[in-house]
Automatic annotation (TrEMBL), chains A, B:
It comes from the Bacteria. It comes from Aquimarina litoralis. The lineage of its organism: Bacteria, Pseudomonadati, Bacteroidota, Flavobacteriia, Flavobacteriales. This is Recombination protein RecR. Coiled coil: none annotated. The gene is recR. Pfam families: RecR_C (PF21175), RecR_HhH (PF21176), RecR_ZnF (PF02132), Toprim_4 (PF13662).
Length: 206, 206
């Protein structure tokens, strides 16, 4: 791409550094901003800048928060000794939106992924292990994605906690509600058969 | 979506104001920035802010430029009396990349679109009409998209120039090079038959 303006080229380049945004899309976005009132760009720039500078992470669960201890961790009505282990804040938001979970969270900040150069020391695993070892936790629920990296991370944490008295569970994998059997992949379908549950339990949860 | 942080919510909101970026994508982009070094956000914010503040438009063709008269308009080797009328700078870049055009451009900044509240006075039509009336232009080439809005804009400019001596052309519509006939839509195929060209001319241009 040949640009007639260095300023434009630079803005497009920086925009295209975002994931899933190629040069063409970046150009479209930047030209859109140029067509809108200047205030829109100012607001965007300010919101991103302020977030990056002032962002805080909850001291207990490492989720993004505007205060030292986030709303969930500081809520006395939440069950204090059940901790759900998730990858990032999107998973917290997704689980919260189900309204089915009343315990606390622990945000790892990613998954162990040697391919991307992410090891255990890059994640908030140490604080989780400490938390469990100090006896505050009765049950851990792994809610990482069911990928190689997710499974590796689960297993790593599990090994770290060997000998520690804590219940460890992982969220159920299976056919999604309303999904058709014929379109499910074999692994998921296989797991949902191996991990079948008594019909009476299913009746209760629906 | 329920956010645990006002700063995050605000950044996601501003990001989702961009075209084609919904709340979920905006959240993904913002979380990506949080995971990257702070410098990446700083560079993005700076590039967008500087562009919006310092952006200049060429006084002759209204294309984006870092100087008063853009490189194309100030190039004495370009044919000075042929002007290609386009919607925005992306079209200039697309046509330039063909290497087939040696004339000048006129960037309208959009198309007449009553549905979006864009009238002729919102576009750089007046300066184009002036330019043509002053006798600087021998041939105008309309290169707007072949939509209702593009056709309306072409026709509006055409009417404004009634009685003015200037050749007016529009870029050819037809089956794309390497496209299969059976997949072409009827309107395009119909136009390509009506506007058929002598085979000898086709031989020359290929």
């Amino acid at each position: 791409m040949e640009f007639s303006s260095k300023l434009l080229e630079n803005a497009v380049y920086e925009m295209s550094q975002l994931p899933g945004i190629g040069k063409r899309t970046a150009l479209r976005l930047v030209l859109h901003l140029l067509r809108q009132p200047e205030t829109q760009t100012q607001h965007l720039v300010k919101a991103l800048g302020t977030l990056r500078e002032d962002v805080k992470f909850c001291k207990k669960c490492h989720s993004i928060s505007d205060v030292e201890i986030c709303d969930i961790c500081s809520n006395p009505n939440r069950i204090q000794d059940i901790v759900c282990v998730v990858e990032d804040i999107r998973d917290v938001m997704a689980i919260e939106s189900t309204g089915q979970y009343r315990g606390l969270y622990h945000v790892l900040g990613g998954k162990i992924s040697p391919m991307d150069g992410i090891g255990p020391q890059d994640l908030k695993i140490h604080t989780l292990v400490e938390k469990v070892k100090s006896g505050q936790v009765n049950e851990l629920i792994f809610a990482l994605s069911a990928t190689m990296e997710g499974d590796t991370t689960n297993f790593y944490i599990y090994k770290q906690l060997e000998g520690v008295e804590v219940k460890i569970a992982t969220i159920a994998r299976g056919i999604g509600v309303n999904d058709e059997l014929e379109y499910a992949d074999e692994v998921t379908l296989g797991r949902s058969i191996i991990n079948r549950i008594p019909f009476e339990n299913a009746l209760k949860s629906s």
